[in-house]
Protein: ATP synthase subunit a
Amino acid sequence: MGRLLLAESDSYVAPGPQSFDYPAIFGGVTKPMVQIALSVIIVAVFYLTASSRLKLVPGKFQFLAESAYSTVRNSIGGENIARKDLRPYIPLLLTLFSFILVNNLFGFIPFFQLPTMGHIAFPMGLAVFVWLLFIFVGIRRHGFGHYFAKTLVPEGVPKPVLILYIPIEFFSTFIMRPVTLTARLFATMFAGHIMLLVFVTGGEYILLHASAGVKVAAPIAFLMAIGLSFVELLIQVLQAYVFTLLTANYIGGALAEGH
Structure:
C-alpha cells in the first residue's frame, strides 16, 4: 500500500500529501499519468470487446457493459435530462462514469494501489470540462443573453431581491460548481488513501520497531486496513456515480426551458 515512512531516528512519520508524490518513471511521466493513459485503454477495450459480438444471452463483458449503460441511461441521465435531449449525452456520461470509476479503482487494485483522482489536477480538469460543457449547451440551446438572463434573473423574483439574488446565483452556479465537483472527488479519494496508508504503515512500523508487548497491535492495524479497503471500494464506485450524476444534473438544467 505504501512504503514505511521513517525518519533518521526510526520514529514513525505519518503519511501525508507526500505519499502521492511519485518519482518520474521516465522523462516527465509519473505513475498517475500512466494510470490515466491506461484507464483510457481499459475503458475503450472493454466497451469495444463487449459490443463486438452482441448476443441475446449476454456474456460477462456484455452483461457488465449493459448494466453500466442501463445505470447511466436510466438512473443518471434519465432522471436529470429531458427524454428528448438525453440520447446525445449518454455516450458522454457513460464514458465519464467509466473513466472515473477505473481511475478510482486503481486505489484498490494490487500493484497500482493509488487512486488517480487523489491528485487534485485530474478531478479539477474533469470539473472544468463539465463546467465548460454545461455553459456551452445552455448557450447553444437558448442563446448567450437568454441563457444567462434566465439563469440569473428568473421570472417572478422582485427587482429589489435581484440585487442579492444575481450575485449569489452567479457565484453558486458559475464559480462554486467546478470547485465543489473537484473538492468532492479529490477529497474522498485523497482522504481514503491516506487512512489506508496510516493503518498499513503504522502496522508495519509497530511490527518492525515496537516492543514485544505492543507488536500485538500490528495484526489489528492490518485487519483494519483490509476492512477499510472494502469501504473505500464502495466509496470509489459511489464517487464515480455522484460526479456523473451531478454532470447530468447540470446539463439537464442548462437545457431546460426554465433556463
